[in-house]
User: Fold this.
Amino acid sequence: MKFLVDAQFAQENLLTEMEKLRVEIDFLDPANPKRLMPRLRSFFAKAGLEDEEVAIWRGILTRPGSRGRSSFCGMP
Assistant:
């Protein structure tokens, strides 16, 4: 059961980071978010991501140097 909780936490953390990125690149207006984030949450819930898949998405979100820090998701 702990594994499921950890996986859900990792996935939710990933979605939070994705939301921040979408706001930063002006893809998501936080004042008028519509249904983007609930749809993405549903999409990832259906996918049932494993830890390695969450890591892949984190890697995709990693943007060295673009924000004055080494990565977007707290990875080295």
Observations:
- The two ends are 29 Å apart (CA to CA).
